[in-house]
Fold these 2 entries.
Entry 1:
Amino acid sequence: MQTKTKNKTINNNPIGIFDSGFGGLTVMSTIDEVFPLESFVYFGDTAHVPYGSKSKDTVVKYSKEIASFLVKCKVKLIVIACNTASAFALPILKKTLKIPVIGVVKPGSKAAVFASKNKKIGVIGTEGTIGSKSYLREINKISRCKVYQQACPLLVPLVEEGWNDAEVTASIVQKYVEPLLDKQIDTLVLGCTHYPLLKKTLKKNVGEKIILIDSAEATADEVRNILNKKHLLANTKNKKFLRFYVSDNPGKFKRIGSRFFSKKIFNVKKIEMSC
Ligand code: DGL
């Protein structure tokens, strides 16, 4: 609920975050660190993960249902932490919801343009994100850049397996990024929730000179802008909580999710989705 104090409005309602599964917890972990006073409601669509290989219509259908659930939880802002859902569903959710909605593609694109000196930017992501060309479009809205894209469908299962530093992962990463390195990119956008966990392996492959863009950090800045602009920041009286909802297998979410969230996860409830 929004309350007016002397000069500013405060709002102690939670921030809603959703993803196809565990991956969005990397984004939530960053935002939670930046906003220690804020409460969060997270929804992981574990019944339908992965989104990366699904069609736009399907991802939009799931995203709409999750967004309505979050609205019922009285969230004050929705962050679409999933790159694929941001690419496919952000425009429609922005149009239909009364609360602010942000995705990770625009903030990641802004950060990439800001970081790149030679204006040659690589983007890696799921088949859906890359096929949508949403990073390419957003980057070029800000500045004319050469954007080289690469879908990396094998990386999500490897990270979920916990093989972030394994040899097999390193050689698959190398195969995916080689064509981008041939184009002399100086910046690489990690356009998928899972890739921040591969930073070490990626660094080894691309070298120290290429800047890796983690959309989660850029998204936290965007959250700050919106909460400030719309006077939605929580205050110290907020009784902070973190709630997690999933569409399947809460036990697995707690187990695997803790690796993505870098903290133990409690409070996970299963919600039946109708689609
Ligand atoms: N969360 C997805 C993304 O960032 C990756 C996992 C999936 O394919 O669902 O695109």
Entry 2:
Amino acid sequence: MGKFIIKGPVKLKGEINISGSKNAALPILFASLLIKEVIEIKNIPKLKDIDIVIKLFLHLGVKIKNGKSLIINASNLHTDFNFPQNLIKSIRASIWLVSPLLVRLKKIHMSLPGGCSIGMRPIDLHIKYLQKLGANIYIKNNCIIASIDKKFKGSHIIMEKNSVGATISIILAAIYAKNITIIDNAAKEPEIKDLINFLNIMGAKIKGAGTKKIIIQGVLKLKGGIYTIMDDRIETGTFLIAAAISKGYIICKNTNPKNLKIVLKKLEYTGAEIKTGKNWCSINMNNKRPKAVNIITGPYPNFPTDMQPQFTLLNCISSGYSIVQETIFENRFLYIHQLNKMGAKILIDNNKVFCQGVTSLYSSTMKATDLRASISLVLAACIATGITTIDNIDYIDRGYENIEKKLISLGAKIKRIK
Ligand code: EPZ
């Protein structure tokens, strides 16, 4: 695993072009396994998670041209099902192999998916709802074993819990299902809307994108075509926080601020000057120290859990006290003790942290633990006094394209040691 050497404090300011969304690209890639014609997907971010999916697809016999865009031909799928376990276990997104391979190959046998250590990451809802749609699916010896006699059968599913991943598994299974599938209490994240837009352009019949009621009319086939992935709203939020913590000024381009309304609102409460346009947004702290703001994470359109570590960092150098409550994942505070090593004053109490703002942080040696925590430690190091070393930075490459290049363009003093 590589490491970063970072010198601070610096003020982060300038212009950033936001990359394509990891969490839209991943489901759209797995959805492409349902299509037997050639498709071209643009604005795919160059990330480790995407590279892993490409390796899995090559194992399945998918033909892929990986240039400026990704050209995918999944007309002939085959597999001996002995997927490289390390690939399956390294990302959470591998769970989205199950639905398309049951549709295409009528069976699948793979190890349980991986994902950041931010919680148990169970897949009981995926299993339950695919069973409801007609799959014979169960877990044995840490493997998912599943088969389906014919086609999935449309069904009325009332999701007992908000789950982005399970909503996506249901959608992918229902595309060619007999009759209609209705999903009540579906997740409404913009990345799911992007997936549905992609599928409808390829000929699917899905209504309710971005709402909690999704209706899918099964079709016989999808056609090929071209699609451009939406921007990464979490990358945008991360760079806005970079300016906020360093009293800087940043403009994010190629990004739709409508998908980040609550984060922009909360940044305004800190005293930041926020401006937005159709495909850009900017933040200017006007050299002021931010005011601490309380945060509660929740399913979209509530405050995104993937922005929780970044905003907690902002709170710990803001003026005043604040509480951050994490309601989605049970273990998403692994980075707190590392911030406290840098001089932060944060107390953890179950799924809440209590922050008392401090005026500065000090360098330290740290280990990254998960994707969003890691980027927050990198940002903390940019404003800390002294030279900070961060190990295990491969986590960051999973979710942020060219991260050190982008940070250096904003004034960061950061070096990667392989
Ligand atoms: C997706 O994870 C994202 N990952 C996460 O982003 C994001 O934080 C999360 O959705 C937001 O909800 C990708 O899109 C690849 P969930 P996912 O199913 O699908 C529980 C990042 O940093 N649950 O919405 O795994 C689960 O444990 C990552 O980019 C079950 O109990 O999240 C969690 O507490 C981190 N049973 C809650 O639901 C299940 O079968 C929400 O999980 C599935 C989930």
